Amino acid sequence: MSKKSLISIGDFSKEEILHVLETAKEFEQNKEQKFLEGKVIASLFFEPSTRTRLSFETAINRLGAKVIGFSDASNTSQSKGETLKDTIKMVSNYVDMIVMRHPLEGSSRYASEVASVPVVNAGDGANQHPSQTLLDLYSILKTQGRLDGLTVNMVGDLKYGRTTHSLLQALSHFNPRFIFTSPEELKMPQEYKDFLDSKGIGYEETTSLEAHLNDCDILYMTRVQQERFTDPMEYERVKDVYRLEASMLGKVKDNMKILHPLPRVNEIDQDVDETPYAYYFKQAENGLYVRMAIISYLLGYR
Ligand code: CP
Fold first, then answer.
1. Residue 111 domain-assigned (yes or no)
2. d(CA 124, CA 103)
3. Is there a domain that residue 3 lies in?
4. What is the residue-level pLDDT of the chain in tens, covering all 302 positions?
5. For ligand 1, atom 7: residue with the closest CA
6. Residue 209 lies in domain
7. If exposure means fewest CB atoms within 10 Å of the residue's CB, which of 41, 42, 213, 264 is most exposed?
8. Which residue among 46, 52, 138, 164 has the greatest number of ligand 1 atoms within 8 angstroms of its CB, and so is best to mutate?
């Protein structure tokens, strides 16, 4: 069995990324391809999730495999003190692949080192969310017809938002221009800006949501990640800093699409949902096809 895992988007080359996107397109055209009958995949969610868990589990079912796992770790032997290492070693004796979300940064990489089967990182703290990134790329490709040379405006919590960290890294293959729109407290961490500098990729930072609404191809909105703050007062200060409303979209580019990994809180008014720029619900649907493609690729079937 293949032991390739997906922990960081950097684990996939540009060619592998494009291969997964191409396979996802095939799955979107034909959702029922049960070539994983007889396989069992573990879905281990140590942290809450709606889309990622349900789309992975739907993908597993549509591929003909079976799912075991949990969505609430308080019902597992972790509550009796079992270590992550022991849990992963034991589960990997039962299954052909592990999909795992965990609040600790680096936990997925660690799990992949102790597991005997491939591990997919479904989000580890503020670090990475690579399957989200692949579905974001798929959504960008579908709406723009290309990945190359786009202006991507990332808005909101760029400090703790793992989806922006993974997406920035993936888009670095495709000659992007970035706008980072955030309050001072939630700026893109220096390590990611250093990464862009090392690749010669340009970016601008602003605190104003209005500043670059009209010159971007993708407006990537994010939620302020309450669960990552150690100081509740700091969260209160920044939680409602941006609110996108339909009335602000009068001069945006015709091709512009608004993406959001969801869940949203207050950062996108519901009146935006009815505009031709809103793409976030379709983006979440795309996650199903992309996750079918990721599973198939890592298990050596596509
Ligand atoms: N986008 C995302 O990760 O959503 P969930 O937290 O609902 O899985």
1. yes
2. 5
3. no
4. 448 999 999 999 999 999 999 999 999 999 888 999 999 999 999 999 999 999 999 999 999 999 999 999 999 999 999 999 999 999 999 999 999 999 999 999 999 999 999 999 999 998 999 999 999 999 999 999 999 999 999 999 999 888 999 999 999 999 999 999 999 989 999 999 999 999 999 999 999 999 999 999 999 999 998 887 788 888 888 888 899 999 999 999 999 999 999 999 999 999 999 999 999 999 999 999 999 999 999 999 98
5. 50
6. 130-284
7. 264
8. 52
* Residue with CA closest to ligand 1 atom 6: 49
The verdict on the CB of residue 167 being under 6 Å from ligand 1 is no
Domain count, the chain: 2
Q: Which atom of ligand 1 is nearest to the CA of 262?
A: 1
Q: Which atom of ligand 1 is nearest to the CA of 50?
A: 7
Cis before 130? omega within 30? no
Only one residue has tokens 């976030």, namely 280
Q: Please list, in sequence order, all residues whose beta carbon lies within 8 angstroms of the beta carbon of residue 169, skipping any fewer than 6 positions away.
A: 8, 9, 10, 133, 192, 195
Q: Are residues 18 and 104 in the same domain?
A: yes
Q: How far is the CA of 54 from the centre of ligand 1 (A)?
A: 9
Cα 200 to ligand 1 centroid, rounded to whole Å = 31
Q: Is 239 left (phi over 0), alpha (psi -120 to 50) or beta?
A: alpha
